[in-house]
Design a protein that fits this description.
Length: about 100
């Protein structure tokens, strides 16, 4: 079964990023949900704290998803144009001669 879970505090976000598995989905009331690589540079502690901790998830939330497909199905999330999750399904080195 496809797995997702809401991230409710910074320590949980930190643990997920250290594990380096899965994807982060950011939901927002003003725009569609976006799926990011779990360690993407476009995910910042300041943004997380503002949306989740300070604003109490009133205008959106952060979720962990096991795959881009799960994120798309569960949240209607689109891929981030900056970190481009799952852009390469095969490592580029496979094509080196």
């Amino acid at each position: 079964m496809a797995e997702t879970k809401e991230i409710s505090d910074f320590d949980e976000l930190r643990k997920l990023r250290l594990a380096d598995e899965g994807y982060l989905v950011i939901t927002d009331t003003a725009r569609p949900a976006i799926v990011h690589r779990v360690n993407a540079r476009c995910i910042t502690a300041d943004s997380f704290n503002l949306k989740v901790v300070i604003n109490g998830r009133k205008q959106g939330s952060y979720f962990w998803a096991e795959s881009v497909a799960t994120a798309s199905h569960a949240f209607g999330a689109k891929r981030c144009k900056v970190c481009k999750p799952e852009l390469f399904l095969v490592p580029p080195s496979t094509f080196d001669s």
